User: Fold these one by one.
Assistant:
Number 1:
Amino acid sequence: MRILKISTFALTALFAMSNFALAGTAVPTTGHGYGATTSSTVTPLADGSTLIKQTTHEFWIEDPSAANFPAEKVADCHGTLLLSAQGAPIAYSGTCSATDIDGDTLVATNRATTPDFSDCTWAMHGGTGKYAGVTGGGACMPGGPITKDGNNSKFSWTGEWVLP
């Protein structure tokens, strides 16, 4: 009976430990999201290019990972897009603050410098609560508009969290 209790305890402890990533560990992350433009300012520039500043309200859904962060987050983002005189994207950068169900907030940035956004990357810069000291980054993939007016879009990401 004692061996059974010890074995049960050992298996339970092993299972519990396997669900928590160690500090300093890189934990893979993937997910997708949807965003809605809440404001947009278009400024024509002297050289014929156009500067667009946007704010978006987004819903992020992270796939389960060893970091055990809540899957759903709501984000407010501020982005700037530079278009060439021909209307092709030249550069994009954005900053988001995302909050989970516990009220903890993370700060992330993203950027791209190719017209097709194939070099889109994101970076994590820490936050509050469980996100304090967390860093990381990876690739972001715009999924395009989901409404005819283009004000609502989808996207996905891959990468890793680096736990403190």
Note: The longest strand covers residues 26-44.
Number 2:
Amino acid sequence: MDAFNIQGFMWDEEKVNNELKNYMTRGFKDVKDMCKTHECDLRMGAFSLGVNRVARATVLRGWEA
């Protein structure tokens, strides 16, 4: 089965699965690193990482509070 991405490129199932695996692995590593830095559980690490990413994007876009 083939899939299209947002740019209209066609990907085969193997490429989709590989990209998903890389994305999930990188995401877990980022959460794990946050947990080590702040000595917290995975739930709090994921929440902290998400809040930090939103805050960074807000600053980069010039929407500082």
Note: The first helix runs from residue 13 to 38.
Number 3:
Amino acid sequence: MGASIISSGYSRDNIQADEVLIAIDAKGRFSKVHLLAEYTPKPLRRFSIVGGLAYFFSSRITATITSVDDHYFAKMPVTKEELGMVAGTANWSGIAPYIGFSVGSPVPKKRFGVTFDVGTYYMSRPEVVVDATNLLEPNKLNQKPLYENLKGYRWLPQVQLNFTYKLISKKILQPLASTI
């Protein structure tokens, strides 16, 4: 059982887009709790197959694009406020199955151990929302094409370094096993 949170952001001004300078502000946050189980075939003591489920309560990417300067369209001045903004959000929240492989001993010989996992979650299709204001409002029509472009992005690869702790020693388990 475990949990993870990863946040990232990107902000940049003065990006040249055709004849317009724009600013982009993008953020991403993935938060989940997961329950994973490992199966270790006896001849391969250090290698395991890992499976499980996670609940992603926040798996959202947002981006907002605005104009940096005022512009002239057909020799008519248009302020950046009149031009407006475009914002998009994609959200993959919900339950996701996990499959992966692990190297290391899931149950340590001593008290502490380390495993290294590589795998992937299979996410739900994203919910996509596009919002726009003022002269850029027709960009709301891009919501469906954006969804069509993102609906295939369902695999979320993971690389994990796990630290394990053995709660019960063999000395405690041996008397229990002999009474069964």
Note: Residues 123 and 153 are 8 Å apart (CA to CA).
